[in-house]
Amino acid sequence: MSTVISEQLFKEAKELFPGGVNSPVRAFKAVEGIPLFMKKGEGCQIWDQDGNKYIDFCCSWGPLILGHNNVSVRNAIVEAVDNGTSFGTPTRAENLLGDLIISNHKYIDKIRFVSSGTEATMSAIRMARGFTGRSKIVKFDGCYHGHADSLLVKAGSGLATLGVTTSAGVPEAFAQETIVLPLNDEEAVKSCLQHYKDEIACIIIEPIPANNGLLIQDPQFLHFLRKICTEQNVLLFFDEVISGFRVGFEGAAGLYDIQPDIITFGKIIGGGLPVGAYAGSKEIMSQISPDGPVYQAGTLSGNPVAMMAGYAALKETLKEGFFESQKERTEYFVNAVVDYAKSKGYNFSIYTVGSIFWLAFSENIHIRKASEIDADSMQYFKKLHKALLERGVYVGPSGFEVGFISEAHTKEYLDIAIEVFKESLDIAFN
Ligand SMILES: Cc1ncc(COP(=O)(O)O)c(C=O)c1O
Fold first, then answer.
1. Where in the chain is the domain with CATH 3.40.640.10?
2. Per-residue pLDDT averaged across 231-255, rounded?
3. How many angstroms separate the CA atoms of 425 and 430, rounded?
């Protein structure tokens, strides 16, 4: 496997961009390699600049639920571009995507389009504060909600402590407004709400936490959050940037049948182009300008090309049996790999929900908190990652990240990937 061209491009990129990349997780730091520069994608495969071909389980970190270069999405983009790329006025494309989503998602009444998941969560936090007149928010350790200041905060020691920032440049005063709790811990939530009574605007959670392993919550915990939020007049905020349109059209809200007060979307909603959104009831969304006092705007928000890409992608997911097929193929893949690992006695498991999976170097099948992940086990991931790449399988370059299966991952390709995983596990564990 030659990576000469990627190496050269990375050398050039390091002169241009911090760390040579425009988003840190692309940098291969966790696996101590150099990032591969991709040239094209088709279906479930990608090709790098050196001509190496991979079955891709990163899928652009989630947006590509139909795989690369899907024909419906591509045609929709080309047709939209034919009419121009941006107007700064409303377009019919926004109505099409907005209506498609709202008509098929019973947990939301109104939506506002933005251009990324970060923008969606940042704006929705402002909306929650504006609506409630309260300033503190609660988040959970192990959940990522984009890089807005108040969300780049991690817990200090002990429960219900005020946050400390996880990034330089975030003023301590901002972090003080964010309380970080452990996931799946009812007592921690109860004591926090008691302590900060009438100060908390919202509890934000990835209902399927998928940014620090796949920390599948006890459904009972999510129902408990709904109940206690209602009792305490705190807004329940589901960040469904990953889970939205992934575990079902209605995301985790639909999977667990929980009505959140606010939902954010990203990734799949834009069909591979930059779109995010936040949504909620008419009453809460009426806070947003120009209807209400909470200001939020965007030059390229609702961009017609991106809207049509999202519209084409989401229409495909609404076809009969789409999500069932996604889940079925994912389980087929996961079971084959896990059965092999078990037969060999490897300390390895794969967590999965819908078409999301996480490679866990542990047999504990109930890791629900960030603190329960053994950081030392990542040495196995590093070896596995390298062996997979060398054999033509691409997974994101961090053992804390999840993988995704797209519509284009047919059983034929999954069978190839299963064999590669088996060989690569043998290397990682020997
Ligand atoms: C749950 C969640 N929220 C928010 C974001 C931020 O989205 P973006 O990267 O589009 O800004 C991400 C990104 O991975 C995410 O996984």
1. 71-317
2. 98
3. 8
pTM: predicted TM-score of the whole model, two decimal places = 0.97
State yes or no: is 291 an active-site residue. Answer: no
Dihedral sign from CA coordinates of 149, 152, 155, 156:
negative
Q: Which atom of ligand 1 is nearest to the CA of 116?
A: 10
- Write down the pLDDT at residue 362: 84
Query: What's the Cα-to-Cα distance from 128 to each of 42, 163, 208, 209, 252, rounded to whole Å?
Result: 41, 19, 21, 21, 20
Residue with tokens 């006695």: 345
Place domain 4-69+320-428 in its CATH homologous superfamily.
Aspartate Aminotransferase, domain 1 (3.90.1150.10)
Give the model confidence (pLDDT) of 309-365 as tens digits: 999 999 999 999 999 999 999 999 999 999 999 999 999 999 999 999 999 998 776
Share of the chain above pLDDT 70, in %: 97
**Is residue 144 flagged as an active site residue?**
yes
Q: Is 380 a catalytic residue?
A: no
Distance from the alpha carbon of residue 239 to the mean position of ligand 1, in angstroms: 9
**CATH 3.90.1150.10 segments of the chain:** 4-69+320-428
| 8 Å CB contact between 199 and 232 | no
236 CA from centroid of ligand 1 (Å): 18
CA of 345 to the centre of ligand 1 (A): 35
Say yes or no: CB of residue 211 within 6 Å of ligand 1.
yes
Q: Is 286 strand, coil or helix?
A: coil
- Please tell me the total number of residues recorded for the chain in this structure: 430
Domain spanning 71-317, CATH architecture = 3-Layer(aba) Sandwich (3.40)
Q: Which atom of ligand 1 is nearest to the CA of 62?
A: 14
- State if residue 118 touches ligand 1 by the CB under 6 angstroms criterion: yes
Report the residue among 144, 204, 212, 402 best suited for mutation to probe ligand 1: largest number of ligand atoms under 8 A from its CB: 144
User: Which tens digit of pLDDT belongs to each residue from 371-407?
Assistant: 888 888 889 999 999 999 999 999 999 999 999 999 9
